[in-house]
Design brief:
This protein has one domain (about 5-270): Jelly Rolls, CATH 2.60.120.620. Helix content is about 25%, strand content about 20%. The protein has helices spanning about 5, 20-35, 50-60, 110-115, 120-130, 190-200, 255-260, 265-270; strands at about 40, 65-70, 95-100, 135, 145-150, 155, 165-170, 175, 180, 205-210, 215-220, 225-230, 230, 235-240, 245. Strands 1, 2, 3, 4, 5, 7, 11, 14 and 15 form a 9-stranded antiparallel beta sheet that branches. A 4-stranded antiparallel beta sheet has the order 6-12-9-10, covered by helices on one side. The protein has a two-stranded antiparallel ribbon with strand order 8-13. It binds 2-oxoglutaric acid and fe (ii) ion (FE2). 2-oxoglutaric acid binds near residues 146, 154, 159, 239 and 241.
């Protein structure tokens, strides 16, 4: 268990003692929240000293960040003029935000150590009740930092991977809230009508979270459409995004990777035809 005790608040969250009653209780609680709300938030999961190291890692590497100013539909696909104008694949919203991609993390970074640990994988798998669960093979998207400055906005979308953790590192003065519509689509139903409603501003199914630095959130990014509201004020928002998947081989589609992480690598083209779950992207 390499250094995990320096990163995670193991007293409160004994993810390294999977036979303990505390661990079992924790899993029960997470499962209940994930079933009820489509997400669970674990306050103070990350130790303050590690949070500080993560913040410094982001700030040391600001020059490597890939910035995007572009318009996206919720699936990160190209426009499809064959479809009617009000189809959600044709509803594009402007995004401005940046990523420190996973291949630009520092060696032995706390974020990498946490992500690569077997304890974390087991904990997420048990919390979701998904077996087997894998770390993502995508070299860019597997555990990046997302960085947003003043006025940046990350519009409604679905992720390419099934499950995402988020660890807020630095909070914006105002705005920068994570909002999601739980389980809006599933493997058998894209639910275009409801997706369109949320894109048009319907708030009926939307939950807004005011995460705190050090909180760990587990959510189902491929099924719950989500966004980050506009950043207000001078303080930038930093968040770490470790990801987990059902298929250890599949990676993002090249177009999705280009739109989100700024580039596509040979692996994205080589694995482009991997059978997926039937959802658009
Ligand atoms: O920054 C967040 O809270 C979520 C970011 C996100 O949805 C993504 O990077 O795909
Ligand atoms: Fe996302």
């Amino acid at each position: 268990m390499k250094n995990l005790e320096n990163i995670i608040n193991l007293n409160e969250y004994p993810i390294n003692q999977t036979n303990s009653d505390e661990y079992k209780k924790l899993i029960e609680k997470n499962k209940k929240l994930l079933d009820q709300d489509g997400c669970c938030v674990l306050p103070n999961f990350i130790k303050t000293q590690s949070l500080f190291k993560m913040k410094e890692e982001v700030e040391r590497n600001l020059k490597k960040i890939h910035w995007t100013k572009d318009s996206h539909n919720p699936y990160f696909t190209k426009d499809d003029p064959e479809l009617s104008k009000d189809h959600p694949k044709r509803i594009f919203t402007f995004r401005e935000s940046g990523y420190l991609n996973s291949d630009d993390l520092e060696t032995n970074s706390d974020l990498d150590t946490l992500y690569e640990s077997d304890e974390m994988l087991k904990f997420v798998s048990d919390s979701l009740g998904v077996y087997p669960l894998y770390k993502w093979a995508d070299p860019l998207g597997k555990n990046p930092y997302s960085v947003m400055h003043e006025d940046h906005y990350f519009p409604w979308h679905f992720d390419g991977n099934e499950f995402t953790l988020s660890i807020l590192i630095q909070k914006a003065d105002k705005g920068g809230l994570f909002e999601y519509s739980p389980d809006l689509r599933n493997e058998n139903n894209e639910n275009f009508d409801e997706v369109t409603k949320v894109l048009r501003g319907d708030r009926k199914t939307v939950i807004s979270l005011d995460l705190k630095p050090g909180d760990l959130q587990i959510f189902k990014g491929r099924f719950s459409m989500h966004r980050v509201t506009k950043i207000e004020g001078k303080t930038s928002r930093y968040i770490a995004l470790p990801t987990y998947v059902k298929d250890p081989y599949r990676v993002n589609k090249p177009e999705h990777s280009k739109q989100v992480y700024g580039k596509a690598l040979p692996i994205h083209f080589e694995r482009n035809n991997t059978k997926v779950d039937g959802l658009i992207d």
